[in-house]
Amino acid sequence: MEILAFGVQSDEKPLIEKAFEGRHEVRCLDVFLTEDTAPIAAGYEVVSTSVNCALGHRVLQTLATGGTQLVAQRSTGFNNIDLEVAERLGMTVARVSSYSPYSVAEFAWTLGMAVNRRIVRAANRTRDFDFRLEGLMGRDMHGRTAGIVGTGKIGEAFARIAHGFGMRLLGWDVAENPACVGLGMEYVSRERLLAESDIVTLHVPLMPETQHLIDAEALRLMKDDAILVNSSRGGLIDSQALVAQLREGRFTGVGLDVYEAEAGLFFLDKSLETVEDDTLARLVTFPNVLVTSHQAYYTRDAVGQIVDATAANVLDYTEGRRSENVLVPRS
């Protein structure tokens, strides 16, 4: 069987080919799955997608009409897939339920410390042989408070790093993580976490209940000199409300690896085009904001685990097994 994989990065391609070697043929495309590209999948029983592919009703209908029966998503998140439509069409949908939490947690800390210590500004200066220190003063994280919104595997990994810094830990989640409690984390209300934390990091999935979890009201609760980091899903933050707060001179720094309207932008080279997203264009102009292109997961360890799990999902499908990764089972 030949598998069609959409949205494959050049670094990812050899890992995918190796994972499927000796099992199935795989055709890797660097284009994302959209309404325009969906017809390419005609004749492929299995299609693999990335998080920035758009699998709404029309795309899924095109896939089903072309004979696709399994969508194997190469990510944990699946908010880009209309599962109800997939089920109605009799399609199986699987994802990668977990991979290295350290990749995302370490990158979240990288963003937080980069804006705290003004690393990008300093690096840009030294390229021009400007070695002044004005405007580069950061602060120790030791003794300060880390607020972790979502204390699953990634949130726990972030908390362990924060604990190593000697920080006070506050957590918010639907259920307490005993490992985080063992680190000394105190579970509090979301409002208290936002009000007391020096760095706030988001590690919850995007769903209707968490859409714009950090809205204008939540942002106003945060300290004026707080650091906000989002390496989870862009829709967790109301981007326009964030711009409004930044215009008022608030926050020591904001590190964003995700953006709520990133589809059609992230993972692509738009350097020679005019980006029409005024909110994103404004965000990247703030000197205390660092935006990266959804790369927190992008380590050889994590991507290798994602690809291996995707290959296992395809094998389970062909052999009639069902694992915890299946979102919509075979009808």
Automatic annotation (TrEMBL):
Q: Which organism is it from?
A: Streptomyces populi
Q: Note the PROSITE patterns from the entry.
A: D_2_HYDROXYACID_DH_1 (PS00065), D_2_HYDROXYACID_DH_2 (PS00670), D_2_HYDROXYACID_DH_3 (PS00671)
Q: What is this protein called?
A: Hydroxyacid dehydrogenase
Domain D-isomer specific 2-hydroxyacid dehydrogenase NAD-binding: where? 112-296
**Entry-linked InterPro entries:** D-isomer_2_OHA_DH_cat_dom, D-isomer_DH_CS, D-isomer_DH_CS1, D-isomer_DH_NAD-bd, D-LDH-like, NAD(P)-bd_dom_sf
Asked if the Swiss-Prot or TrEMBL record annotates the protein with the keyword NAD, the reply is: yes
GO MF = D-lactate dehydrogenase (NAD+) activity; NAD binding
> Could you say which protein family the record assigns here?
Belongs to the D-isomer specific 2-hydroxyacid dehydrogenase family.
Task: Identify the keywords attached in UniProt to this record, alphabetized.
Answer: NAD, Oxidoreductase
Pfam families assigned to the protein according to its UniProt record, in alphabetical order: 2-Hacid_dh (PF00389), 2-Hacid_dh_C (PF02826)
